[in-house]
Amino acid sequence: MRISHLSLLNFRNYKDLELALPLGTTVVQGANGHGKSNLLEAIYMMSIAKSTKVSTDRELINNLSVTQLEQEKLSYAKISCITEQLQGSENLEIHYRCQSSENLHGFTAQKFIRINGTPRRSSELVGIVNAVLFSVSDLDLIYGSPSIRRRYLDILLSQIDREYLKSIQQYQKANTQRNHLLKLIREGVASIEELKYWDELIAKNAVVITQKRKTAIETLEESSLPFHRSMASKAETLTIHYLSPGDFSKDINIDNFIYKLDVSRKKDIAQGSTHIGPHRDDLIFKINEMEASKYASRGQSRTAILALKMAESEFLYHHRQTKPVLLLDDVMSELDVERREQISEHIKYHDQVIVTTADHSNIPSLFMSDSHRLEITNGSINVI
Length: 384
Prior knowledge:
- By secondary structure, the chain is of the alpha/beta class.
- Helices cover 44% and strands 27% of the residues.
- The chain has helices at 36-48, 63-72, 122-125, 140-143, 146-160, 162-186, 195-231, 254-271, 292-295, 298-320, 337-347, 365-369, and strands at 2-11, 14-20, 24-29, 74-85, 88-101, 106-115, 118-120, 131-135, 238-243, 282-287, 290-291, 325-329, 352-357, 372-377, 380-383.
């Protein structure tokens, strides 16, 4: 698949952008802070229907649009793209209706999704655009909190599996309700018997989530090995371990999960929260059986994550039967010359690749010679 056209209106530092995107590799160069990462963020949002960088959609709105909002009480922002696939083209749109609000720090941004002009739910947009994003912040998968690693799995699996997306949404809602009920039981205003419904709903969805996560990690680990061997500077083996409180990573079924909830009930009530389940899962990356977050160098960790991302690309291709669009956000600047050449060799077989850089000398010359080149300055893009 490919994205043939991208439109941005009042998004980040883009006031109004219309950009044609060709097949092959496009190198976008420009100084830091001029909008390179924002461009890739917008494209990746078309794949997962949200930004991974903000806590509220209001942060995505262009500052000039906010000024207009203050004057006119109403404004709009939009990200849209045209995709070309074997079955034809599709017009996808994320539209924000921004309205003044004295109660919510100035304004609200309400999101709407349209697919070929028809209003849809966000979940229906997820996965239509097949994309993989590489960024410097990917090192957080090793050094960051467990929630970052869980979110990585949720985003990946939601793109290819509607059952997983539905299960994670239902699980999160049920877990919130169960935690609220636990607090009420602790305060003596609700009965333990009321947990039965939520325990069963949580267990049903937890089984689906855990099984699919475990299978995905096994596949990603296996696929990442050849990439890792080709890029590692010495004989190293990358392993990825899936950890699930209650030891559910080995054997899980609904009855077993409900039993573990019963065992944990006293502790859950005392603390007002659920202590077992997919919301407590984690991944551990190891290099030669040494935990990467504690013992690996930055270079080793970076190589491990690059291998994981290449495995992610294969994973999506296997499930979707179409090569994903690769988005590389200033990744080359973090690599030595040898690894730049190796990653360039791996990605050249993809139909569409978009690479950003602050310094074009970081891009291998042979890779650069076959690329389309764009220059970005303060949210304006020109062909070089």
